[in-house]
Known about the structure:
Layout: H1 2-14, H2 18-33, H3 38-65, H4 86-94, H5 96-99, E1 103-107, H6 114-127, E2 132-136, H7 137-146, H8 151-161, E3 165-169, H9 178-191, E4 196-201, H10 208-212, H11 215-226, E5 229-233, H12 239-242
Parallel strand pairs: 1-4, 1-5, 2-3, 3-4
Helix pairs in contact: 1-2, 2-3, 3-6, 9-11
InterPro entries: AAA+_ATPase, DNAC/IstB-like, IstB, IstB_ATP-bd, P-loop_NTPase
Pfam families: IstB_IS21
Protein name: IS21-like element helper ATPase IstB
Amino acid sequence: METEKQRIRELCTAFRLGGISNGIKALITEAEQQEMGYVKFLSQILETEATHRSVKDLNKREKAAWLPQMSDLNHYKTGSEDEISPGRLKQLRELNWVDQLFNIVLMGPSGTGKTFLAAGLCQDAVKAGYNAYFRRMDDLVNMLKTKDFVKTQQVEYKRLLKANLLVIDDIMLFPLEKNLAISFFNFINQIYESTSIIITTNKKPSDWSKQLDDEVIATALLDRLLYHCEVINFSGESYRLKNRKTIFEGS
């Protein structure tokens, strides 16, 4: 019996059936104890492999997403200072807008929860099976600068072109040189018809031309991002400043 079990594990390794290989001993023991029929035993084996692959795929997509540590929207607090009521949050988390290729613009001062919401929606999308990625604007700029001569950045570029959802955090926080502004526009132009995009920004659309130093590029970029788009405005005091810590007692 042990020889047969070992042979099963070897075959599972050869056929890359990691879930069955890891669980075969327990599966056989359970089948013997319950006097399980052949059909049920086969079903249990295949379910074990399916679960293993599903978890492995989720871990792979979570790793590629580059999510911040705080990305769980179950801890997101809705309030009167912004437009995210519990009902709207529920609708956003249903992710129907991703299938409809809608974009979301989260606009407002730093520290008001834009990144948390964007990252949380990205995490929900990853768990739902979408290819979803969270990237800061400087991540994208660095990728666009180096993709033509750094292999890993070329891989990153091709990965993002196939995204179902892309979060761009802190867009237009810093000015872009003309050549990078053009590269960024070309990138958005390639994905906007096949990818939902979430952007967070503390700049009004009217300020984008200053950051890009080109009104034509700014207008063309906004035209693509805002065509099918929900704009959500945030206001209020920065959460980080309001809850800042101090090293002094009694302060």
